[in-house]
Amino acid sequence: MPEMVYVHIDTTSNAILARGITPADFVHGIVHYPSNLLLLDPSSNYGEFEAHTGMKIIRGNEKVDRFFDEVRKDRINEDLKWIDFSDAAMLKELTPLEISELLYFGHMKTHLHSPFFYKLQNNFVFFDLQDGLTRVYYRYLDEFYRILADKITQSALGKLNDRRSFFRKTTPVEKLDLALLKEMKALFQEGIIFCLKNSEIVNKEFHLPIYLVEESGLRQSVTLGYDKPEMLVATLIYNKAERRWHVEYEDNDLLFMPN
Q1: pTM of the model
Q2: Taxonomically, which superkingdom (predicted)?
């Protein structure tokens, strides 16, 4: 389990910049599982060459499953950057301008126009960045909230059962309600860290502190630290007895910060 999970959401493009959520977490948590992938690195060692776009594709559920299995096992030794598509025939309908836009997307790892292409009918664009960061575009943000909820729930499960004896039954944890995460939309737009390393059990409750952080601060966090008391904005709490999650905010006005 990582020390922290960083999340920044750009609600204009549905781009999630995250650290602490791995490609394997993504594959495990998504609902709209891709049938085909267009690899945005023309020199990728994976996939088959597609002549019209000049890029590599991974076509069909079986091949996508095999590729994602390699991702889960951390066997991919190149940058992960891909966009899913629904119909291989529609690739041949892409115009030179659309192909150049995809190439730009892959090279710069950011969008020129909409990250969701009508002809591709893509649900995702995935970029594995340096320093453990990922940038993923989600057509449906609920997919991301589900992945994040799984990650935090697993952290709580581990913490609550950390010192359990061999003969003692595992304490179950209810999955974190997506509505609580959606409630934090304004904070996500600023950029926040769920500080897993500082999580603790207080009166049989799991407490997970949440800190506000700027992107520039994130890049310096290894040396400067990101868990300064003055940056604490909320605490996510799981009550074991009531089997209920809730959030305690340092200032309720944080819920209504301007976008």
Answers
A1: 0.92
A2: Bacteria
